[in-house]
Amino acid sequence: MSSLTAIKPETINSLADAIFPAMAMLAGMKLDVFTPLKNGPLSTGEIAAEIGVPPRQLGPLLYALVEANLLAVENDQFCNTDEAARFLVKSAPGYLGARHLSLSRRWSGLIKTADSIKSDAPQARLDFSTMPSEELENFYAGSYAESCAAGRVLVERYDFSAYRKLVDVAGGSGGLSVGVTESCPGIQATVVDLPSTIPLVRKSLDAAGASDRVNTHAANVVDGPFPGGYDVAVMKSIVQVLSADHARSALRHVNQSLEPGGDLFILGTILDDSRLAPSYAVKSNLNYLNIYDEGRAYTEGEYRDWLEEAGFVFSERVVVEDGTSIIKALKPI
Ligand SMILES: C[S@@+](CC[C@H](N)C(=O)[O-])C[C@H]1O[C@@H](n2cnc3c(N)ncnc32)[C@H](O)[C@@H]1O
Q: Residue 93: which pLDDT band, with cuts at 50, 70 and 90?
């Protein structure tokens, strides 16, 4: 009995509280409270006037953002923390504030987890081929900065100097291709994505001023191969969208589009064979079960088997800082 009373609901209470800072961040991004603070501290009333909201309920959010370590306050004057100033001010390079679009979608799906399991169907289904164009545009706007950063990380980690033609398979917003070609001007990239998404991909590339170095091609990579001649292929956040059978088909078709000796980089949430790590991949599977019929974070072992079956030689898997992984594989000569 005494050992039972010694057990406190600490984990339960801390999990129940964990939502508040995340929700404060979301509201702060959505209202863009951070940009007006780029020139120095402001009061609640001044911030409210800058972002065009009534001041009455803004105060509680600002103090919650202090608690969340995104703002600091002194004498009722708020300022950005270093991190908020670096990533949440609209003019900052690598601005992440637009992520509220993808986070809102993800979190409203996660609330349905029990229902998705019970009904054996995703209750916040994400179908890229039928998604209304405005929703898809928001999805790409919300993921662009992250994908661009992933492109930069890729070329920092691996030597891309010998590559000339890159295919960004299911490249979505084109962010990754923009990130890679910014750092490696000798590379011409092509974003391959579903026909319905291509006009939006082009729009995103135009907005980034990257249309001269990044082309687009409409294709369903599950259904068949696409025109080839590439010396490097990147597949970011696509395999986990697909069922295992579709993933295997996509890998076969990518192999056919690569020149012999070409390299493949797969980026995304990939599980250790234990299914217990990396933590981010374990958690992401909760998201996927709410949005994809069969997609999920697959294990390294599954990737190894599928890559071999598709004609690749597995080279390595590394887990990067954000908990996602990079697999490198080679199409032998
Ligand atoms: C989660 S998004 C990832 C986008 C991009 N790679 C990134 O990381 O930002 C998945 C992308 O895969 C595309 N996609 C899904 N199924 C596809 C298929 N069968 N063939 C080609 N593209 C596909 C979607 O249109 C969408 O752009």
A: confident
Atom of ligand 1 nearest to the CA of 268: 8
Does residue 204 have its Cβ closer than 6 Å to ligand 1? no
Q: Where are the domains of the chain?
A: 2-100, 126-330
Could you tell me if 185 and 213 are in contact, meaning their C-beta atoms sit under 8 angstroms apart?
A: yes
326 pairs with which residues across the strands? 267, 318
* DSSP strands (E only) in the chain: 71-74, 77-80, 165-169, 188-193, 214-218, 230-236, 258-268, 313-319, 325-330
CATH architecture of 126-330: 3-Layer(aba) Sandwich (3.40)
Backbone angles phi, psi at 71, to 5 degrees: -130, 160
Ligand 1 neighbour 122 (Cβ under 6 A): no
Is 90 exceeded by the pLDDT of residue 142? no
Please state, in angstroms and rounded to a whole number, the distance separating the CA atoms of residues 250 and 265: 14
Q: Which of the pair, 102 or 259, is modelled with greater confidence?
A: 259
Residue 288 Cα to ligand 1 middle (Å): 14
Which of the 8 DSSP states describes residue 163? -
